[in-house]
Every structure is written in structure tokens, then in C-alpha cells.
Sequence to fold (289 residues):
Amino acid sequence: MKKGFTLAELLGVLIILAIIALIAFPIINRNIKTGKESLYQSQLKEIELAAEKWAYKNINMLPVNEDEMITVTLLTLKESGDLPLDIRDPRTEKLLPNDMIITITYKDNSYEFKVDEESGTDITDEVNKDAPVIVLNGSHIEFVEINREYNEQGAKAKDKSDNILTDINITYQENGTEISTIDTSKFTTYLAIYSVTNNGYTSQITRTVIIRDTTPPDLVIPDNVELTASQLNSFDIMEGVSATDNSGEVINVTTTGFDTSLSDKIVEYQACDSRDNCVIKRRLIEIVE
Fold:
């Protein structure tokens, strides 16, 4: 006569299975994530290859000088037929955004193709193969130092018959409001929106312009100096010291290393702007009899 499992034996089996599951699940989950990441990298490579195909068909829009670049969008590659319309991120199964950016750079007598994975905001742009082609001259993100001139690089456009289109409209926006020009005297972010219309179809591409300050102040200090003991007590270590900044703000200069002891000393001057860009200079003060 066959004997069934006891309750204790069944519980033991269930516990063993639970332990196996706890051990196996993280491994399986990690392998799934690794596999999806590998597929995603292959997807990026597919986009770069599509950009390369597009480039060979649109040679007249490519940069010709060393380190120059143009910027195209995923939508452009879709409309040219070089990418499928339903291209997705295998990690999330979501459509890749049509405004995802691909840069094409001329370097060492060849072209480099690179996908900006962090770019792209929308997936709703209509795909229309009769729309004109528009690409940015340069990068889709441009950094401009505060109070420096903004150099508008513009865009290139052509119709589906390879005719160059010159009537490209450029508008600027700040915080969603249209403005007449980019003001580089304040720290902010602008959008430069380029659009071209042909045969009733409009294509558009956007550049982000960020005004920033990465330049340290210009600090001027006098040369090294020799002082007698009597001169030391009345010596002004700030005489002849000045600091200016490209932001136009008032810059304070701090010093360390100066005292009235009768010994040689190295005085350190430091000037920092409000963006924590700093410059340090030193001078020798030598005590003589």
C-alpha cells in the first residue's frame, strides 16, 4: 500500500522550492536586464547605421570641415525610409522619441555617427515622407558664456527632389514665450526653433542654447615686493589689486598668508564669482633690513 506525503514533508518541499526561487529569481532577472540592455545597444547601432545610409544619400547636407557637425532627428531617418516607423526601446517597449538626436561629425577625413541617448521628448510627430528635410548646423545643445556673443549657426533644408530650400524660419523662445533675440547677459536657457515649409508640409528641429559661466575672474596683483620692518606695519596688501569678471558682477578678493611678523611671507589672493569659478595668484613679500 502506497503511503502519501505527510504535512511536514510537504512543508519541507515547499520551503526548498521557495529557497530555490529566492536564489534563482535575482539571477534570472539580472540576465533578462542584461539581455534587454544588449538589445538596446544593438538598437542604437541600428540607428547609427541608418544615419550613415541617410548621409550617403544626402551628401550635399554633410559638413566638410574638420570637427564640424550637423544634427538630424530620428524622425528624419524614419521619413527617409532608413528606419522603421515602429522603432522601440527594448528595455521599456516604448517608441523611441521622434526628436531623438543623431550627430554626424566630420573627423579625420571620415564621418562619425553618434546617437544622443538622453535626447528626445516626444513621440507624436507625424511621419510624412513628403516633408522637407531639415538638419542643424552644429550640435543640438550649445553653451554660450555669459555676455559673449551668440553665433547663430542656422540649419540646412531641402525638398524631396534634392532642391535646396533657403527660406528657413528661426524663432527663439524663453520659458515657452517667443522672444526676438537671444540675450546672453543673463543666466537662462533658450530654444532656437528652425522650421521650413514646402508643398504644404512643414519640418522642424530645435536647438537648446544655455547661457552659463565657466570662466574665472581676471585677477591682477602687483609684483613681488621688498619691505623694511617699518614699512611692513603700514603696507596695504590690496593696493594695486583688481578683479573683474565676464558676468559684470562685483568680485571680492580674499587674502591669506599676510601678517606683521618680521619674516618673508607668501600672500595668496583668491577671487571667485557667484558661479564658483575661482582664480588664485601668489606674491612674495620679502623683509629686508
